[in-house]
Design goal:
By secondary structure, the protein is an alpha+beta fold. It has helices spanning about 25-35, 65-75, 80-100, 125-130; strands at about 45, 60, 135-140, 145-150, 155-165, 165-175.
């Protein structure tokens, strides 16, 4: 029985343009390095969800002041586009409507039980080991790019970027 050829043991070598040192992938890596140092920005986005101030007589609502601050901080990094901000602004409005349509105050607030940048609950190791992440595909056409990244802990994300005034910005992040 053949147990595989010598080629099976070779490490996948990515083309030169699949490098986090070159744009547009550099924008993603720079943003994720920034985020690794600022993960606490996604706190307080839901009223009455903090264990210290939880009031069993009140229901969850979106804290729009906190969500606007969160989006403002992300935008200030200059890695994120207006399109990304608008997507999340709409998401927060939808979540607030869902809270009002289905009042609850028990358990993790629906829609807020994961990290919005890493799109996962299990992401600490991926951020700690960012430099071990791999670009598995990259397509670039004019001022748009799509980059698929596999993280060391198994998270797989697709980044959609556009070039605005000569600078790459993240328009969206989706799970693969």
């Amino acid at each position: 029985k053949d147990n595989g050829s010598a080629d099976d043991n070779k490490e996948l070598v990515l083309p030169e343009n699949y490098s986090f040192d070159k744009q547009p992938a550099k924008t993603i890596m720079d943003f994720l390095k920034w985020y690794r140092d600022h993960m606490n920005i996604q706190t307080g986005l839901v009223n009455n969800s903090n264990g210290d101030t939880h009031d069993s007589t009140k229901f969850y609502t979106v804290n729009f002041e906190a969500t606007e601050n969160y989006l403002s901080v992300l935008k200030s990094t200059e890695f994120i586009s207006d399109r990304y901000v608008e997507k999340w602004r709409g998401y927060f409005k939808k979540c607030d409507k869902d809270f009002r349509d289905n009042p609850t105050n028990d358990g993790p607030p629906d829609g807020f039980e994961y990290d919005f940048i890493m799109l996962s609950q299990e992401y600490d190791e991926d951020l700690e080991n960012l430099e071990k992440s791999k670009i598995v595909s990259q397509s670039e056409l004019a001022n748009n790019a799509t980059i698929r990244i596999h993280f060391p802990n198994g998270n797989k994300l697709i980044y959609i970027l556009s070039k605005y005034e000569g600078h790459w910005r993240i328009d969206d992040i989706v799970r693969e």
